[in-house]
Specification:
Helix content is about 55%, strand content about 10%. By secondary structure, the protein is mainly alpha-helical. The protein folds into three domains: about 55 residues, no CATH class; about 55 residues, no CATH class; about 100 residues, no CATH class. It has a three-stranded antiparallel beta sheet with strand order 1-2-3, with helices on one face. A hairpin with a 4-residue loop joins strand 1 and strand 2. Helix 6 packs antiparallel against helix 9 and helix 7 packs antiparallel against helix 10. The longest helix is centred in the middle third of the chain and has 41 residues. The two termini are about 50 Å apart.
């Protein structure tokens, strides 16, 4: 009931929900995204809408009572729902290595998934080996994508550090406020938090051996900050020949 209401409201409205533990209820705030002619006449050039506040009880929640299934029971349940097996013993080996729950993401598009459905397969020709092939394809694709992303990320970090360290002749150039257009203080907080969170041995070594500057040099600090922090740093840097060089090199 609660989730059906949220789905209906979200069709034409932006929704926000807040749970009130004391009342065991949720409040739904829905901003009407539709436009009405009467409102356009009254307020030309302005978008308008209204808020709906609904107090929804969560009485439809219940205890989780599903019991664990043996590998044989997992195969039996999938068969009952319409999945075809060529070799049930082999299927149990896959399930023991991959898990029934993980494979659910790959069977989901081929099943009925409404709130009260039995999750039966919508076609009679879907085989367990098809699901495994889909899983293996996804795994290989993710491996290729992540490998490419890692190479790009390493190159981006290296180029930023090299260009600015060499041009400023400063190991800690990222601390220089004059290099930035905006957001310096907030950026330093993010860099410091990321560095302090790191467990890398070279960060520990720097902290053990040096006390000034308190933060490690750029080739250490920018190696361990998140890519989000690195992107924030690059966006904040002033527009000059160094930044143009990096942009022209596909950074």
């Amino acid at each position: 009931m609660y989730y059906d209401l949220v789905r209906k409201l979200s069709q034409h409205r932006k929704i926000f929900t807040a749970f009130i533990p004391e009342l065991n209820k949720s409040i739904i705030f829905a901003f009407d995204m539709t436009s009405h002619a009467s409102r356009r006449t009254a307020h030309p050039g302005r978008s308008s809408g209204f808020y709906i506040v609904v107090l929804v009880g969560l009485a439809d929640k219940t205890n989780y009572t599903k019991r664990p299934l043996s590998l044989g029971e997992q195969v039996a349940r999938l068969k009952q729902r319409g999945l075809v097996f060529d070799d049930e013993s082999e299927a149990m080996v896959y399930l023991f290595n991959i898990s029934y729950y993980r494979l659910r993401a790959y069977t989901y598009p081929f099943q009925e998934n409404s709130e009260d459905s039995e999750h039966n397969f919508t076609r009679k020709d879907i085989r367990f080996k098809d699901i495994i092939n889909l899983y293996c394809f996804d795994r290989r694709l993710r491996s290729l994508v992540f490998n490419a992303i890692e190479k790009i990320e390493v190159a981006v970090r290296t180029k930023i550090v090299q260009v600015y360290a060499e041009s400023t002749d400063d190991s800690h150039w990222y601390n220089d406020k004059s290099l930035y257009r905006f957001g310096y203080d907030d950026l330093m907080k993010h860099i410091e938090a990321d560095v302090n969170r790191s467990n890398e041995d070279f960060i520990k070594h720097y902290n053990f051996k040096y006390d000034n500057p308190p933060m490690p040099p750029s080739w250490m600090a920018l190696e361990v900050v998140s890519f989000a922090t690195l992107s924030r740093l690059f966006q904040s840097l002033k527009l000059d020949n160094r930044k143009n060089t990096l942009q022209n090199n596909s950074v």
